[in-house]
Recover the amino acids of this structure.
């Protein structure tokens, strides 16, 4: 286990290093941010001065090494726009996005696994077919459209839920959280469901197909032959076996949603990282973009390690070696 | 030969069909036998002869598209067809249990052995979890698993193949059932381990008076183990009787062929006998006797359904020409047994 963790950390550092270069070069290629930073009336001299002040006149590799040197001191640069450290900006907004992501996934899991089981156990029936076809709908409908429709229905027509913002928050360990207050929950509900629809569809389909594949297996037959109650056969013998692919997908989806909650956050004006990154891309605020992408990579890496550890708990045949 | 008076299981005209897109497969087509208390019955046949499906039908484990469509299964006097699902559940794993062919796939890979054993006890007995664990450890001891109180905390993949099969035997024995159905439980094992397991299963059943149905394709296994034997071919029992009688004096050409194809000291350096042809597809069985296309004695007569000839109290054969006698001279005439057809 310790060996496994050490190896994975080493690998993670390599991945981070490679990613940082790709990100840096990519952002470099997008264009020069200087035009959006200085006022249009600035003279050529002022322009030159600003460029050299920001170090934008240096070649790519020189800028990259300066960047790496700063990173090693824990600095990811200062936002051109906000004039504050980029990493601080990101980390301030990370909790809001994390909360939204976790809420979306919890929704997807709590609704998805029972529906998937129901569909997998009753493939022939109307219920099973209905669940599976509606899951295709969730896959294919664009998130932004569903978000807008939800606002139209629940906020404007019915007036049940607020349209934007996080609502009332409670501070725990220095982090603001919405899910602990009723008002916060009302604000959280719509964006979380909106963001959770895609993973919901995935989990339904995975659970259903896993169920269908597992039911005819010998050990399920033996479970029945032992005279176990149906509830136990399904929730212990079946579910524990199909959890492995589901955990993989949940792990992958977690990072994906976290990184690309952008659309939902924009629609519901959720003050998370997604909105910050959209604004930063518009203004070509390089340090923030780079910091955002690196934070996202770190989250990906952490989640992947957690998923691997979960594997070994779910499936005793998996040994955490130093692969 | 002991006389077994109390009947534990009586199967009468059992029919299990599989409804496939290509047609109806009559995997079990009119099978009848009875098993007495403490008796060991062998069911022999090639793969696809319906012997495993017979076992599954008794346990109520036939999955879609298969279905028991006819006949009666009477267990301890009660017809299983009239029982509710809950009543059947209380029988399964408790009064009757099954040992599967391959313990590598029949034990749940992600659950520990203690979980899988204790749940079997708790499903049927109103005892505490500790009590159930004790019963389980005892069960492991009985099938010869060393250090059972430690090993019970292991996962299935941490055991060797032979040990795993012992685990599933221990599980089948846990609630001291009246009947155990063993579906080729030694096929996947080494010969030495096979012999050990055969010996121990036989001993455990004898000690407790448990009835046993041993399903196998291996006649040599049957010889030293069972009391009665049924030979199955294409979903039907073609010959049945006390094991010594059937092995020493086989009546059906198929049984004769099966016994003839076992290598032995007498057949050394001679060409080994083979039954010609292959087991027919159950989707397109020949009419009349299903074996006739591979039978050296077959004639026109065999195109009608062969009679079941009762030779003695427990000995029967389903053939026009038992042992191939009278085959040649009768080949053109209509069977004298036609009115016996069942």
């Amino acid at each position: 286990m310790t060996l496994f963790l050490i190896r994975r950390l080493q690998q993670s550092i390599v991945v981070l290093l490679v990613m940082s270069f790709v990100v840096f070069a990519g952002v470099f290629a997008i264009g020069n941010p200087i035009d959006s930073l200085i006022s249009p009336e600035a003279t050529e001299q002022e322009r030159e001065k600003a460029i050299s002040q920001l170090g934008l006149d240096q070649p790519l590799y020189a800028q990259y090494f300066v960047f790496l040197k700063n990173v090693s001191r824990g600095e990811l640069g200062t936002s051109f726009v906000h004039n504050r450290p980029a990493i601080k900006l990101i980390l301030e907004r990370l909790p809001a996005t994390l909360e939204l992501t976790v809420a979306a996934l919890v929704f997807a899991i709590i609704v998805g696994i029972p529906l998937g089981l129901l569909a997998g156990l009753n493939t022939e029936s109307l219920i099973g077919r209905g669940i599976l076809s509606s899951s295709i709908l969730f896959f294919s409908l664009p998130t932004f459209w569903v978000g807008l429709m939800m606002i139209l229905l629940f906020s404007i027509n019915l007036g049940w839920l607020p349209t934007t913002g996080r609502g009332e928050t409670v501070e725990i360990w220095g982090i603001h959280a919405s899910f602990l207050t009723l008002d916060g929950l009302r604000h959280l509900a719509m964006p979380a469901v909106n963001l959770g629809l895609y993973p919901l569809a995935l989990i339904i389909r995975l659970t259903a197909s896993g169920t269908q594949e597992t039911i005819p297996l010998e050990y399920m037959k033996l479970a029945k032959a032992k005279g176990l109650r149906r509830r136990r056969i399904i929730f212990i013998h079946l579910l524990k076996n199909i959890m492995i692919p589901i955990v993989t997908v949940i792990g992958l989806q977690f990072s994906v949603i976290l990184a690309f909650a952008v659309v939902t956050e924009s629609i519901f004006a959720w003050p998370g990282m997604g909105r910050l990154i959209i604004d930063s891309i518009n203004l070509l605020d390089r340090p923030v973009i780079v910091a955002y992408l690196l934070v996202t990579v770190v989250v990906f890496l952490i989640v992947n390690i957690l998923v691997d550890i979960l594997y070994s708990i779910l499936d005793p045949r998996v040994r955490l070696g130093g692969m | 030969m002991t006389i077994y008076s109390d009947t534990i299981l009586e199967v009468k005209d059992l029919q299990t069909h599989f409804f496939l897109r290509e047609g109806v497969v009559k995997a079990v087509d009119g099978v009848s036998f009875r098993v007495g208390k403490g008796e060991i019955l062998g069911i022999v046949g090639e793969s696809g002869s319906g012997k495993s499906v017979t076992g599954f039908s008794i346990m109520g484990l036939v999955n879609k598209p298969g279905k028991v469509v006819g006949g009666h299964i009477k267990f301890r006097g009660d017809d299983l067809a009239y029982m509710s699902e809950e009543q059947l559940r209380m029988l399964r794993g408790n009064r009757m249990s099954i040992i599967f062919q391959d313990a590598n796939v029949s034990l749940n890979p992600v659950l520990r052995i203690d979980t899988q054993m204790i749940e079997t006890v708790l499903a049927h007995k109103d005892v505490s979890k500790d009590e159930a664990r004790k019963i389980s450890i005892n069960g492991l001891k009985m099938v010869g698993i060393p250090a059972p109180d430690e090993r019970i905390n292991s996962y299935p993949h941490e055991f060797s193949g032979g040990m795993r099969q012992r685990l599933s035997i221990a599980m089948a024995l846990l609630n001291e059932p009246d009947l155990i159905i063993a579906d080729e439980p030694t096929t996947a094992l080494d010969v030495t381990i096979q012999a050990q397991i055969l010996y121990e299963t036989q001993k455990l059943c004898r000690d407790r008076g448990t009835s046993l149905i041993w399903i196998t394709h291996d006649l040599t296994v049957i010889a030293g183990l069972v009391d009665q034997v049924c030979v199955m071919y294409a979903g039907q029992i073609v010959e049945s009787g006390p094991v010594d009688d059937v092995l020493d004096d086989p009546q059906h050409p198929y049984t004769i062929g099966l016994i003839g194809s076992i290598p032995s000291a007498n057949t050394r350096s001679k060409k080994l006998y083979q039954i010609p042809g292959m087991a027919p597809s159950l989707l397109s069985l020949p009419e009349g006797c299903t074996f006739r296309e591979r039978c050296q004695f077959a004639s026109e007569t065999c195109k009608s359904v062969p009679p079941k000839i009762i030779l003695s109290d427990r000995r029967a054969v389903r053939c026009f020409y038992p042992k191939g006698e009278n085959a040649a001279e009768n080949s053109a005439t209509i069977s004298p047994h036609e009115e016996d057809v069942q």
Notes: The first helix of chain B runs from residue 51 to 59. Chain B touches chain A through 30 residues (CB under 8 Å). Residues 329-342 of chain B have pLDDT under 50 and may be disordered. Chain B has twelve helices and twelve strands.
